[in-house]
Amino acid sequence: MLTRFIHRLGRWIPVCLLVAATGSVVMAEAAARADEGKVEAIEIIYSAPDNKPVNKGTVIGGIAGGVIGHQIGSGRGKTAATIAGTIGGAVVGNEIEKKQKQATPRYRITVRLDSGSSLIVEETRDLNLRVGDRVRIEDGHIYRI
User: Lower CB count within 10 Å: N or C terminus of the chain?
Assistant: First the structure.
């Protein structure tokens, strides 16, 4: 009977140790929350629009300007109007394309986490945060607490 008890005890000791070790690990992780902290710095980042001389707007504007210019005049005047319309349309189309591609500002927010480490999060939406605000970081997004 004593040997039977010792065998059963030998089977349950590893299970008890495993449960005890798992519980202490979970408690250690819960004590140090790494997803909350304080805003240290906020930078506004504007990406410069590309300054390509030829883009879709240039091509479409040039074609439209050429077609409209071709409708004006006759003979050499028609040719000059077509060339002027093409150049004017290309310039206007390029400017329209640049204005449409102006980047929205991004915010680079540096957060000092409660664990002591720093984390940088980039957001495209204005969160109206200030340096010193308490925040929570969840799935790569930042929220004020």
Answer: N
